Amino acid sequence: MRATEMTEATITVTNLGDLGVELVHGIVHPPQVALVGFGKILDRPWAVDGLLGVRPLVTVTLAADHRATDGFTGARFLAVVERLLNHPEEL
């Protein structure tokens, strides 16, 4: 990235779930370096401790400029988001 592209970089968060959108495919526009998208919370089948049940689930997506970060860092970020959503008392 050029120095001019790295000034005032941002991460944008979008929540289209309120509008019924299940999945967000983000496009990163400079000076953004990433876009995190939250979809609609839906009841889905999910296995917990070997038992199948229904849980509210949300799809969280990350689009990132690979000149500023990499997939490993993005995966770690999404893992933290997942942990915090599963344990909101830590927020």
Descriptive key words:
single chain; 91 residues; alpha+beta; three-stranded mixed β-sheet; two-stranded antiparallel sheet; 5 strands; 18% helix; elongated
Outline of the structure:
By secondary structure, the protein is α+β, with helices and mostly antiparallel strands.
Mind explaining what this structure looks like?
With 91 residues, this protein is an alpha+beta fold. 18% of the residues lie in helices and 35% in strands. The protein is built from one helix and five strands, in the order E-E-E-E-E-H. A hairpin with a 2-residue loop joins strand 3 (42-48) and strand 4 (51-57). The radius of gyration is 16 Å and the shape is elongated. The chain starts with 9 loop residues before the first strand and ends in a 5-residue tail after the last helix. The model has no long low-confidence stretch (mean pLDDT 89).
Write the layout of secondary structure elements.
Layout: E1 10-15, E2 32-38, E3 42-48, E4 51-57, E5 60-64, H1 71-86
Parallel strand pairs: 1-2
Antiparallel strand pairs: 2-5, 3-4
